Fold each of these.
Amino acid sequence: KTVAALEAGIQSIFTKIGCNTSAISEMLGTTGVTESNIMQYLGVIEQRTNELLQLWKNKNTQQDVPATTGPLAASGTTNINIEPPVIGDDDDSDEESSEDEERPLSRDELKAKTLRGLNKREGQKMSKNAKKKEAKLGKQR
């Protein structure tokens, strides 16, 4: 009963989306969906559905997108500033280096070490920004 309803539904979808009936007849040698060829019919339905979706996508993108699209700004008119990462020793201090390598850190120790590292990096960023501002002010004078 369930298989018969499934076969009827698959046959209905097959004809509604315009699948090539002659191709499936040549491939399977039968007409109509049966329990033995359901997977082949579903494969053809999937292929036709993908074709229809691709056609729909192409039609909609052609209408929405103008033929000549490019960058909004002319080449060379915008400055790109890339700041490379600071390369250096990330250890906070020499006093902790040998001690930390030999034992695991507690949660509080790990939190404290992380905060020290973040504060150190923030201090480095602030000093870089200050140097940049001084350089800009020097050029303006």
Amino acid sequence: FFFSSRRRHTRFLPVSWARRCVQETGQYYNQIMPGLKQLLFNLPSETSQQQTIRVLTIECIGFLVSAIKHDTQIFIEDINSIMSVLIQLQNSGLQRDDPQITAILSVYANFAQALGQDFARFLPQIFDRVIDSAELEVDFILQDELDTRDDRLDNENMAKASVNLKILGGKKTLAVNTSLLEQKITASSTLFAIIDSLEKDFYQYVPRSC
């Protein structure tokens, strides 16, 4: 119940369509990727609608590369320019619960699985960000239902539900920052994907990831 059904539906349709379409018609990569890159490189992030489009674009790029990951020559040049933009974006001072961060992390995982050990060259620039996201403390609030004093409840990423704890305190408002929670989960999955892809090239990063 923590995830808005409308938000999930809006995000799910274009991304899942792209994943299914690309998996079946990978030969159209050169027709699809330029448009996605144009959106990523040029679309501002000034409104919630623009931010949503950027998130979907980033996710679609990851699925597109993942669908043809066995033919690296097709996408290798694109990966270099895309990674440059994603790294710059992640270091641009985004809010810690910006959904774009989760999308970026998922693309890191897609690219790591596609490039294998060649992904190691990007690790010095992204590793600390992945770890920071994996170590996030997720905002969690449990308070009396009529108590609205916590300013964190005004955050649009805070999903709220009313629960009745009965003898344990009666009706309470339970709220979780789902954007941070999703980011934390995605970062952990991305870390596993990087470790699996880099194998021995990851050894120098083991102390920082423990």
Amino acid sequence: KQWYQRRVRGRCYDSEEWKAKCILKCGGEDKYVGVDKVLGVCQCKVEDLEKVCNLDCRNANKKSIQLVCSDVNYLLLTETADDGTVLDDKEVSPDEIKDSMLNGASLVSEFGCEKTDGSKKSVFMTSMTDNGFKGVYRPSINDVVNPIVEM
């Protein structure tokens, strides 16, 4: 079935043009799955999440970057071993967050927390390249601090 969708810059692609574009984007026809017609993005085969980061890894990831809701909100960065043992942690101040993190002011403002009771909220990180974006699982403190603090 033939269909058309407008791209960001206004040009319409038909289903065959989308397929050709996505085969290139995905890295070959064997990795091409389809096109999300609602979002206008390619769907490619990806590595199984269980192989990349299993349930224990994803649970540990929830504690890697946390917004601590207190009188002065801050980020708590925690690096863990595979068994969950804490290897290191670091507090990142609101000024560091506001000055160097995209939307950092929103993160540490009242928008991020309903209460100032010391509760913690998980914050997740993605890696973006020309080929798309992907989740970052259990980043080291250095992986998080450098983009935030040294931008």
Amino acid sequence: PGGGASASIPDVELKEALKRKNVDADVVLDARMFPDPDAFMLTKHSGRHHLIISRICLHRNFPRWLKGAKRHILQAIQWKKRQTTGGAVLSVSIAVYCRAGKHRSVAAASILSHIFTSEGYFCPPLKHLSYERWGRNCCRGECQECLNPPPEIQ
């Protein structure tokens, strides 16, 4: 419900595809449930743009998506705790995907990184597997609009 792609891809297949790219994800999250009919105005930006992030957060599917993400992440943490012995540092890797890997997945990953960082967790810099395919017309999050969001949302 709420639009977006509906093709269901099993987590096992997604994790296998990620491993072929040398990415070992503990959690795989689908960001295709955030369609944006007005996104054509922002095609020159990546999901790092404040309007794309805002639209994801305000989308009617966002609370359900975030609740599901939290459930999957907590399950991965519990599994990792059972696998880890002694005082080893616990690390959970999260992969977020959408159709093209430029807007929705980038915004969703940025949102999760912000939440974890705000809660005091260490998050390494985000790695965008589709970055090379964003094209010449994409600012790649480096334009003034992306680098300097309005003060009220910082």
